[in-house]
Specification:
By secondary structure, this protein is mainly α. It has helices spanning 5-26, 54-63, 66-70, 89-107, 111-120, 129-141, 149-160, 174-182, 206-229, 235-241, 243-255, 261-291, 296-301, 311-329, 332-354, 361-366, 372-382, 385-396. It has a single domain (12-41, 52-395), classed as Hypothetical protein af1432, CATH 1.10.3210.10. Bound molecules: magnesium ion. Magnesium ion is lined by residues 92, 96, 121-122, 215.
Length: 398
């Protein structure tokens, strides 16, 4: 049979594309990395895709989720917008994904899984950043319950996202769901029997361990940047109090004595990035070798997490974080925003407890099967900052 030139070239292109994809994903994958072909799979089995592996599909499912799009209108640190250049939860998430992919490639980890985990890591955050989370948790505790953003993220991807006719949720692979639960917190199996399937007695794969640390690299550096931009922090103040910044800033001023202060600041920040990322790569590599970890099983069974900064950089990271807590997160300038967040979340929660008929129909129906406080919590946690303001005006306004 004679094939048309077009058909031939398509076939050749497809073959080339598949070959490239295998090279791109398998190249340099370390022995201790997660392998997509050994995934424990999805809750509802699905046929494999022609040209995307399961972790790539999970990453794409997260990107196309409604909860992911809402991150754009959720606070990272600043509730009120001091500037259009500030991070929100979506841009923070993209920064975490960028840093995570870079480190994953250097360590030979599964970059597709790392990217999916980075993109989903903050999907369970309520409006108003940590103030909103605290207020929501406080409201739940009045009813003997609690709020936790990782557990909420699991509810989103398992149940709330409705995209497919055959099942609720995104039907993500086990490894992505496990990473959502375990990347930043070790849950006690006795307190969380519902999480038993996620191997709580074992460490998460390095792909998930990495996310907690890249999250910190991203927000510690970004919050210095946004804090300065908001004039809540000064460059001198940071240089005096934060060793890692002071060191880098001194080098930059020697190298670029005539540059504008903002550019010197940016150069110093870039060097902090490199120092934190470089240290994390080198130290994690050394710890893996020291532990003799040659397989994913070795990583899982090792008594502690292997992804870590060196002792010296860990100390500098802690100092930077403490500085941010003292001078930015707990600063009097942000106090009013935090009080607003607590009042709005608290009053709206109380309103719907008293008047559940003011909830949207789908939530009223859910409340027939689950406790009302949990349903109100789910509703509030999913809101963006502008939407919760709107709801507050509607139900609690003067
Ligand atoms: Mg984060």
């Amino acid at each position: 049979m004679v094939q048309s030139p077009n058909r031939c070239s398509f076939a050749a292109r497809d073959k080339l594309a598949t070959g490239y994809w295998q090279l791109a994903t398998d190249f340099k994958l370390a022995d201790f990395a997660v392998r997509v072909e050994q995934s424990r799979g999805r809750r509802h089995p699905e046929p494999s895709h022609a040209y995307r592996n399961d972790f790539q599909r999970d990453r794409d499912r997260v990107v196309h989720a409604r909860a992911f799009r809402r991150l754009e209108a959720k606070t990272q640190v600043f509730t009120r917008r001091y500037s259009d250049h500030f991070r929100n939860r979506l841009t923070h998430t993209i920064e975490v994904a960028q840093i995570s992919r870079t480190i994953a490639a250097q360590l030979g980890l599964n970059a597709d899984l790392v990217e999916a985990l980075a993109l989903v890591h903050d999907i369970g955050h309520p409006p108003f950043g940590h103030a909103g989370e605290k207020a929501l948790d406080a409201a739940m505790r009045q009813h003997g319950l609690s709020f936790d953003h990782n557990l909420h993220a699991l509810r989103i991807v398992e149940d709330f996202e409705l995209r497919y006719a055959a099942f609720r949720g995104l039907n993500l692979t086990f490894e992505v769901r496990e990473g959502i639960i375990k990347h930043s917190h070790d849950y006690d199996a006795r307190e969380h029997p519902e999480l038993a399937e996620y191997l709580l007695d074992q460490r998460p794969p390095l792909e998930a361990q990495l996310i907690d640390l890249t999250d910190e690299i991203a927000y510690n550096t970004a919050d210095l940047d946004d804090g300065c931009e908001a004039h809540l922090l000064s460059v001198e103040q940071i240089a005096e109090s934060v060793e890692i910044f002071g060191d880098c800033y001194k080098d930059v001023r020697k190298l670029y004595p005539a540059a504008a202060e903002k550019l010197q600041f940016n150069e110093a920040l870039k060097r902090i990035f490199d120092r934190l990322v470089g240290d994390l790569i080198a130290n994690t590599r050394a710890r893996i070798a020291e532990a003799g970890a040659h397989s994913l099983e070795d990583v899982r069974r090792y008594p502690e997490r292997l992804a870590a900064f060196s002792a010296k950089v860990e100390e500098q990271r802690r100092q930077l974080k403490d500085f941010l807590y003292e001078n930015l997160y707990f600063s009097p300038a942000l106090e009013g925003e935090k009080e607003d967040a607590e009042r709005i979340v608290g009053e709206l929660f109380a309103h719907w407890m008293k008047e559940p008929e003011d909830l949207p129909r789908t939530y009223r129906e859910k409340a027939e099967r689950e406790p009302l406080p949990r349903i109100i919590c789910d509703y509030i946690a999913g809101m963006t900052d502008p939407f919760i303001y709107q709801q507050y005006e509607k139900y609690c306004g003067e």
